[in-house]
TrEMBL record:
<dbReference type="InterPro" id="IPR025669">
    <property type="entry name" value="AAA_dom"/>
</dbReference>
<dbReference type="InterPro" id="IPR050678">
    <property type="entry name" value="DNA_Partitioning_ATPase"/>
</dbReference>
<dbReference type="InterPro" id="IPR027417">
    <property type="entry name" value="P-loop_NTPase"/>
</dbReference>
<protein>
    <submittedName>
        <fullName>Chromosome segregation ATPase</fullName>
    </submittedName>
</protein>
<dbReference type="Pfam" id="PF13614">
    <property type="entry name" value="AAA_31"/>
</dbReference>
<feature type="domain" description="AAA">
    <location>
        <begin position="6"/>
        <end position="179"/>
    </location>
</feature>
<comment type="similarity">
    <text>To B.subtilis soj.</text>
</comment>
Length: 256
């Protein structure tokens, strides 16, 4: 189903699965295809912010101030060459604690985005590696969830918790929330276990699994240290090509 001004949360409480890498590269891939994109970094580590070329340590207005209602979304937006960014840093941890005192802490981000959502074709939210109030805010604000998964033995471990959380959010505050898709990341086709797990994921989730598979690639790992996405760092690398393919596949799925 096509949704205009679509908000997608990129989430997996398991760390090290390529969640931030996926958010950044998908955002850049969509922007290069002519879409207006806003990337929101909801991880206190601020890695997505850094990968977009902004030093998270020097932010004066960020996701922290936005969630603490100390600024409006338009004031937190940083303009880059390809896309817009709402950055984050370690201050977001303090916001997370304060949010728990609010009457409806899970809806703060959704309310704050209302004045700007129509300015974008896609809003991508990079969630922290946990099922915290920050992730719940992203799920409440989003139309769908994209789940990056590494093809390893523990790939499915914890996925049940995430799916249960998504279902609870659907039943309570966001009945329209759907799974956008599962993305297999850091894939090494020479590894029999990786192939077995990839097949298992496809068997369990069928059409919800993206056809695009992101390979393990050194250029993808190097790019953030240069404040760039893999697509900008080396557009011909296997990882960059995969993420550009993911952006195209996402547009086809959404008839956009």
């Amino acid at each position: 189903m096509k949704i205009k001004n679509k908000i997608i949360a990129v989430a997996n409480q398991k760390g090290g699965v390529g969640k931030t890498t996926t958010t950044v590269n998908l955002a850049v891939g969509l922007a290069q295809l002519g879409k207006k994109v806003l990337l929101i970094d909801l991880d206190p580590q601020g890695n997505a912010t850094m990968a977009c070329g902004t030093d998270s340590r020097n932010l004066t207005v960020s996701a922290c101030e936005l969630l603490m209602d100390e600024c409006e979304a338009k004031d937190a937006i940083i303009k880059t060459e390809l896309l817009d960014v709402i950055g984050s840093n370690t201050n977001l941890t303090a916001a997370e604690l304060q949010m728990m005192e609010y009457e409806d802490p899970q809806t703060i981000l959704k309310q704050q985005l209302l004045p700007v959502v129509e300015n974008y074709d896609f809003i991508l939210i990079d969630c922290p590696p946990s099922l915290s109030i920050l992730t719940i805010n992203a799920l409440t604000a989003a139309h769908s969830v994209l789940i990056p998964m590494q093809c390893e033995y523990y790939a499915l471990e914890g996925l049940t918790s995430l799916l249960d959380t998504i279902e609870r959010v659907k039943q309570t505050v966001n009945p329209e929330l759907e799974i956008e898709g599962l993305l297999r990341t850091m894939f090494d086709g020479r590894n029999n276990l990786a192939n077995d797990v990839a097949a298992q994921i496809s068997e369990h989730f069928g059409s919800k699994v993206f056809m695009t598979v992101v390979p393990r690639n050194v250029k993808v790992a190097e790019a953030p240290s240069f404040g760039q996405s893999a697509i900008e760092y080396d557009q011909l690398s296997r990882g960059a090509v995969a993420y550009k393919g993911l952006a195209s596949e996402l547009l086809r799925r959404n008839h956009a």
